[in-house]
Design goal:
- The complex is a heterodimer of chains A (290) and B (264).
- By secondary structure, chain A is mainly α.
- Helices cover 79% and strands 2% of the residues of chain A.
- In chain A, helix 2 packs across helix 4, helix 3 packs antiparallel against helix 4 and helix 7 crosses helix 10.
- The termini of chain A are far apart.
- Chain B is an alpha/beta fold and 264 residues long.
- Chain B folds into 2 domains: 155 residues, 3-Layer(aba) Sandwich (Rossmann fold), CATH 3.40.50; 34 residues.
- Helices cover 38% and strands 23% of the residues of chain B.
- Chain B has 11 helices and 10 strands.
- In chain B, the strands form 2 sheets. Chain B has a 6-stranded mixed beta sheet with strand order 6-7-8-3-9-10, sandwiched between helices. Chain B has a 4-stranded antiparallel beta sheet with strand order 2-1-4-5, covered by helices on one side.
- In chain B, helix 4 crosses helix 5 and helix 9 runs antiparallel to helix 10.
- The chains are: A mainly alpha (290), B alpha/beta (264).
- Chain B: InterPro entries: AAA+_ATPase, ABC_transporter-like_ATP-bd, ABC_transporter-like_CS, Metal_Ion_Import_ABC, P-loop_NTPase.
- Chain B: It comes from Pontibacter burrus.
- Chain B: Pfam families: ABC_tran (PF00005).
- Chain B: Belongs to the ABC transporter superfamily.
Amino acid sequence: MNAFWIILTGSLVATCCSLLGCYLILRRMAMVGDAISHAVLPGIVIAFLFTGSRDSLPMIIGAGLLGVITTFLIEFFHRYARVQADASIGITFTWLFAIGIILISVFAGQVDLDQDCVLYGEIAYVPLDLWITDNNLSYGPRTIWTLGFVTLLIIAVIVLGYKELFLTAFDPAYAAAIGISTSVWYYLLMTAVSLTTVASFESVGAILVVAFLVGPPATAYLLTDNFKKMLVLSVLIGIVTSIVGYYLAFWLDGSIAGAMATITGLAFLLAFLFSPTHGQFFKRRKVIPA
Amino acid sequence: MILHVEHPVVEVHDLTVSYERKPVLWGIDLTLPAGSLVGVIGPNGAGKSTLIKAIMDLLPASSGYVRIFDEPIKQVRKRISYVPQRESVDWDFPASVFDVVLMGRYGNLGLFNRPRKADKDAAMQALEKVGMQAFANRQISQLSGGQQQRVFLARALAQNADIYFMDEPFAGVDIATETAIIELLRTMREQGKTVIVVHHDLQSASQYFDWVILLNMRLVASGPTEQVLTQELLEQTYGGKLTVLSKVGDLLRKQEFPVREKRS
């Protein structure tokens, strides 16, 4: 049963991240996802300091706010200080993450909210943290409920806002000209990324979040030329990655999150070499007869 | 020479646009007649694209205002279409030609609604108008420059708007596409649509447009083509640039001595 919960957690995180990652990589903003996943830390800590509990809701609100502030700051430095976009990302998230680290070490040292937990998470502990009601009924791991809710929310946003998200990613100027607000959809996307990050950081850590945000979408991008197929494929790749990653970790007796991230990289490498449309292997073969 | 018209479709009043506090357009004041093909002409960096973007409120204006169909832009968005510069988007995006043209219907659909059959039919008709129906399922990364431009045009046509802003639709396209586009623009004019085109080629401007805006950060002229494309106004627009001036001279000489006489 533990294996099932761990794989389910990995798959839920992979689903959220892969879906959002498709939009991020097409907007050339994959590193913004990276930035948000780190920069939400002070939001989480401040939420914890205010409420004194590790309940999900205040943390999600805190992290969501910080995520939006992060994207805003990145835009701000890029546009008004005229720093390059990547430099602006680099300065913003390292700075916010560092503030979070200081807050943890000064104020929250006595609880199990530490740097390791934030960066690497510990997916193996997911089955231990059960949601048990007063009359002793167990509803399974708490994380599954939070992640399941976030996953449903993100799927709903993508299904309902499909055409707006698609258009604003492809051609924001045209979208604005025909009256579709680009900033509303931009910040909605960034809020969704923040939500996903905070819902998954406890269990899988920021690094696996980044791996799932970029890896499966980039792999799917190499496998198809159709955006809807890219969304579906990246989710499938993410889920398969979680399953294979879990068993790799089991076999090696190593870190589960690390193994999942490794498989993400391997999947990309396979697509890079053997994709029927973009793969290096087939490209070479196509060239020879010509 | 700035000519104003009664009952204009586009009315720009004292429009100033700045980037980083540096003005790129100064006090533009113009009106455009309905059902005309308008060319926006001027040297590089004259603010041609900036002007149409500012009219559509895609860029904030430092001062001045714009009215379209005698209304503020926000109320008439659905009647406006835009063909951005081809290079402004990533053509490796995972989308088909049909996907892109269907985007032309998004504005009218509203939030949460999916494209219906009528929308898909409209998109297909727009593709036929630009002669690209055979490419509907083609991946957009496989198109040539001229085909990309036709796809953008089809997207605007699918919208069935009343006024069209086009940013350099003739830039880097083959001659067949250029002819096809100008034919299409003329048909649109016959249907009473207004088309405003950013254009950089002086030679063809006199044949293509019936109203010309000459721009070089300030408005030099706005009026019927034959009254605006004069040596004096072109010199004012292009300044003292020798190469350009000699080109202008060539152009005017061609006008004075038709090709047939030159051969003799």
